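wait is this the right file?? whatever heres the structure
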């Protein structure tokens, strides 16, 4: 009897301890469930802030310890395109890439709305074939430079490559002030054509800065706003010419000859500004290519292997042909639309420039819509969706090209039949 009392006390003490432990475990499990639920809500809130407002609510920082201005993924690529963000690295890369493409594009087609004055016997005395040869030369140098530019971007990075292309065409654009013959004009146009390879740097740069959920929109908007330079130059240059013409003294023909030359100060200034702006950017979200390669954070690219792989890839060639057909139409329209409206329909230079600019100005929204369509298709159907989106848009372009041709079937030829082959 004496031994049982303490044993009962010990048993009751153990039971109480077990109950307390069980209760604590229950409380712990409940707390864990609540914490998990709260973490899920916080994660969902971060996703909403990133998707809807483009806010880096997680406070993710780059290797320099600076917080990104936009939400990023695990590779520090932006998951949201914020148009009014100009900070490094994502916003700066986006805006400098499209402007770096815009300036050479503006320069490339600056001669189109000025051609009525350039071709006069009192100036360069260009024939129709001279104009055509200049256009062909510019396109050929563009094709060659684009092939090389992709390889250079892998070595030097898109930032330096874009700046170099903007700077290298400045002497040719400035040379328009002193050119005296058709040969000189063709050479200058050919060198200026090198600048259109900034399209490659634009696409490379945006691809390195934006995640796959928005890269279609980012690439399309950057390329579209850059291509818009062809429309803006057709719209703006006639007014620039008129303003300069009214400031000059001399005979009308002499003023015309000097005015169109002085107009080239504007594209030169744009290219210089674009090149300098590009140098303020960053190749990758965490730094420049050379810096990251020195620290071992990035491996040196095998450019030759990538180039050889691309040249041997059937899909790459299909996309090349597709883009060539699409972009070829745009190059043609930007080159000949002004003279078509001026010579064939008898419109004044300002009116002809306005109508000729409408095609290029559609890049303000058209390419962005294509990028959104591509991203939407990828989200729902994967890469196959992007391919179908490309096929549908290209087919629609072909249909509208045929419709445009059918509208003009009953009209006379826009030029003398002996000269039509040149156009």
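ok assuming it is, sequence goes like this
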């Amino acid at each position: 009897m004496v031994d049982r009392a303490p044993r009962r006390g010990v048993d009751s003490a153990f039971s109480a301890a077990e109950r307390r432990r069980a209760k604590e475990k229950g409380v712990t499990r409940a707390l864990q469930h609540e914490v998990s639920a709260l973490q899920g809500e916080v994660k969902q809130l971060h996703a909403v802030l990133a998707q809807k407002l483009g806010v880096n609510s997680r406070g993710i920082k780059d290797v320099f310890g600076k917080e990104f201005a936009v939400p990023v993924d695990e590779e520090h690529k932006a998951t949201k395109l914020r148009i009014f963000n100009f900070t490094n690295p994502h916003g700066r890369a986006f805006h400098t890439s499209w402007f770096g493409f815009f300036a050479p594009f503006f320069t490339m087609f600056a001669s189109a709305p000025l051609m009525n004055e350039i071709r006069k016997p009192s100036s360069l005395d260009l024939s129709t074939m001279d104009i055509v040869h200049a256009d062909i030369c510019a396109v050929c140098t563009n094709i060659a430079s684009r092939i090389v530019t992709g390889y250079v971007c892998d070595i030097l990075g898109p930032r330096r490559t874009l700046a170099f292309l903007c700077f290298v065409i400045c002497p040719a654009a400035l040379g328009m002030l002193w050119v005296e013959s058709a040969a000189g004009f063709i050479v200058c146009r050919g060198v200026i054509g090198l600048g259109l390879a900034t399209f490659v740097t634009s696409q490379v740069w945006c691809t390195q800065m934006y995640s796959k959920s928005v890269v279609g929109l980012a690439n399309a908007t950057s390329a579209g706003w850059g291509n818009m330079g062809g429309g803006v130059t057709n719209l703006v240059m006639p007014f620039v010419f008129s303003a300069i013409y009214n400031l000059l003294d001399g005979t009308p023909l002499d003023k015309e000859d000097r005015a169109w030359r002085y107009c080239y100060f504007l594209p030169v200034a744009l290219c210089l500004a674009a090149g300098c702006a590009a140098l303020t950017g960053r190749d990758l979200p965490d730094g420049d290519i050379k810096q990251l390669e020195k620290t071992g954070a990035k491996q040196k690219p095998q450019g030759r292997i990538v180039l050889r792989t691309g040249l041997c890839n059937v899909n790459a060639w299909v996309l090349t042909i597709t883009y060539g057909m699409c972009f070829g139409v745009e190059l043609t329209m930007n080159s000949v639309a002004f003279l078509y409206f001026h010579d064939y329909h008898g419109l004044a230079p300002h009116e002809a420039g306005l109508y000729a600019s409408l095609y290029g100005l559609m890049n303000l929204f058209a390419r962005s819509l294509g990028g959104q369509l591509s991203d939407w298709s990828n989200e729902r159907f994967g890469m196959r969706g992007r391919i179908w989106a490309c096929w549908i848009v290209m087919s629609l372009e072909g249909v509208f090209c045929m419709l445009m041709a059918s509208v003009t079937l009953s009209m006379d030829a826009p030029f003398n039949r002996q000269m039509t082959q040149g156009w």
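Confidence is low (pLDDT under 50) at residues 417-423. so i think its the right one actually
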